[in-house]
Amino acid sequence: MNAPTPDGPPFRADHVGSLLRPPHLLEARARFAAGELDAAGLRAVEDEAIDEVVRLQADVGLHTATDGEFRRASWHMDFIHSIGGIEKVQENITVHFRNADGSLDFTPAGLRVTGPLSIDEPVFADDFAHLQGAVQPEQTAKLTIPSPSMVHYRGGAAAVDPAVYPDEDSFWDALSAAYRQQVQGIAAQGCRYLQLDDTSLAYLNDPAQRAQLATQGRDAEHQHERYIAQINAALAGRPDDLTVTTHLCRGNFRSSWAAEGSYDFVAEALFGGLEVDGFFLEFDDERSGGFEPLRFVPPGKRVVLGLVTTKRPELESADDLKRRIDEAARYVPLEQLALSPQCGFSSTVEGNALTREDQVAKLELVVQVAAQVWG
Question: Which DSSP symbol is given to 257?
Answer without folding.
Answer: B
